[in-house]
Amino acid sequence: MNENLRMIWYMIHKDPLVIAGLVLVGFSGLLLTRIQLRMMKSGYKFPYVKYLTRQSWEVPQEYLNQRMKHGWSPWAAYLFWPTALIGVICLVIGLFRLQ
């Protein structure tokens, strides 16, 4: 356990962009899960696919369309794309800086 904490601490000091990117990508995944669970509880059907399709890209927009009817807060859909994009950018820059 102590060795794992030292490795994480070293990574935070060596290149914090990698950690920030992973945290932001993980947070965007949590937001998407929240959006999908709310949509499923309201009766929206998601197709099971392995890859991203046009319909899966439109889930946050459909959430925004349905939120007024169900009284949901729009913050999850508004934060999903910025956290995903900023997280991927931080992760890529951080990984290139690790060399």
How would you characterize the overall build of this protein?
This protein is mainly α and about 100 residues long. Helix content is about 80%, strand content about 0%.
| Tertiary shape | elongated
Query: What is the strand content?
Result: under 5%
What integer value in Å does the Rg equal? 17 Å
How many β-strand runs?
0
Question: How many DSSP H or I helices?
Answer: 5
Fraction of helical residues: over 70%
Structural class: mainly alpha
Task: Give the low-confidence spans.
Answer: none
Sketch the major β-sheet.
Answer: none
Q: What is the first-to-last residue Cα distance?
A: 27 Å
User: What value does the average pLDDT take?
Assistant: 86
The helix/strand order is HHHHH
Short description:
The protein has helices spanning 2-14, 16-41, 54-57, 59-70, 75-97. The protein is mainly α and 99 residues long.
Question: Which key terms come to mind for this protein?
Answer:
elongated, 99 residues, 5 helices, mainly alpha
SSE diagram, text form:
Layout: H1 2-14, H2 16-41, H3 54-57, H4 59-70, H5 75-97
Helix pairs in contact: 1-2, 2-4, 2-5, 4-5
